Amino acid sequence: MQLGSDRFSGSNYCLSAHSVTGRNAGLTEAEIESARRAAASEAKADQMLRFTQSLVLQRGQISDADLAALRQAGFSDAEVIEIVANIAQNIFTNDLTILSKTKAD
Q1: What is the Cα–Cα distance from 94 to 51, expressed in whole angstroms?
Q2: Taking a C-beta distance cutoff of 8 angstroms, is the pair 61, 27 a contact?
Q3: What is the rounded CA–CA span in Å between residue 91 and residue 38?
Q4: What count of Cα atoms within 13 Å lies in the side-chain half-sphere of residue 88?
Q5: Angle at 101 between CA 16 and CA 99, to 5 degrees
Q6: What pTM was estimated for this model as a whole?
Q7: Does residue 64 fall inside a structural domain?
Q8: CB 3.0–4.6 Å: which of 7, 69, 91, 104 could bond 16 by disulfide?
């Protein structure tokens, strides 16, 4: 299952909102679609997306190699914590929009 699919998070609202945010930040449709598949053309962003997908799909049970690859891509311990915090925030938001039955605009 893909990280950015609505089947994964279950929240069409969040998927739609994050797509709009990406467009507003200057991402192309191709870049948004690629990010939904946990991939990016830039190596550091690609590694962060793959780490994020692993962390979510494996519910935090990632390998030492996954963490080492993220650090080798140039992420500090503080940035790893920030990535995990953003994942937690997005899971919370997805669950809240599902619970409240928020409709995509």
Answers
A1: 19
A2: no
A3: 16
A4: 7
A5: 110
A6: 0.80
A7: yes
A8: 104
